[in-house]
Amino acid sequence: FSGLTIIRNCDWKDDFTFYSKTLKQNPDSPGANINMATLYREKGNYIKAIEFVEKASAIDPYYTDNQFTLAAIFQDMGEYDRALELYEKISQEKKYQYYRAPFLNLGIIYKTKKQYNTAIECFKKAIELNPLSSDAYANFAEIFDMHGDIDRAAKLYKTSSDINPDDYISLNALGVYFGQKNLPDMSLRYLKKALKLKPDSAEINFNIGYAYFLLYRNGDALKMMEKVLKIDPNYNKAKVIISEILSPGKGGNENENVR
Question: What is the pTM assigned to this prediction?
């Protein structure tokens, strides 16, 4: 059986190989065609993705994932009105499984279009249908964050990160929140978690450096700001903090070993 195991491992080596083989074995399966459409969408090959959706629709016009997948392609392409039309149709006809419900995607598009009240209603529906949707909580939080309601935003970010500990966006947002609350130690706790998940993020590295700066750990702050500029040489806020640390009379060097 060892030879068979090796062959199976090759089949599973990557999704493209596996789903291509599945489609070859089941060319009349709408699901197999939709899987290929999803893979091409994720690769950014939208023309090819649409071709596979059309094949799936020709095989079974009533297959529930056809419209959702096409809407997701339009959404990724930035054709939001076409995506909204399909998502709204899916919602009205109630032709979806809970894991393919359109409300999260509707909320994201309405948030992008700055129709915040409608977006909030969509996120509420998404959470009602799937209380473990960390993406719904995080996107919901961003609306409050953008409008300065940081306390309500923080609660939603916390829920998102509790559900999904790998949600570095929410962890970073919580770090910023506690920094705004003048709690730099708590801020660092969340920011360091975010950094482990996204070490090449200029924003997260900057936020950690700024927390060090607030704690008068200027040596650590300087190292982080230099790291930020290696990632993004045009990150001007890092240049400002470096200037603050190195400027005479700012007390930069004398505070270097406070902690």
Answer: 0.81
What DSSP character marks residue 133? -
- What are 206-255's pLDDT values in tens digits? 999 999 999 999 999 999 999 999 999 999 999 999 999 998 665 544 44
CA angle 58-64-67, nearest 5°?
70
CA distance readout (Å), 2 to 8, 31, 116, 122 = 10, 31, 57, 50
Separation between Cα atoms, residue 192 and residue 156, nearest integer Å? 20
DSSP state string for 80-91: HHHHHHHHHHHH
> To which residue do tokens 């409300």 refer?
103
Structure tokens at 258: 């406070």
User: The tokens of 64 are what?
Assistant: 């529930």
The whole-number pLDDT of residue 12 equals: 39
Contact present, 171 and 187 (Cβ < 8 Å) = no
Query: To 5 degrees, how large is the angle CA 161–CA 163–CA 166?
Result: 55
Distance CA 13, CA 1 (A): 18
**Per-residue tokens: 154:** 């923080």
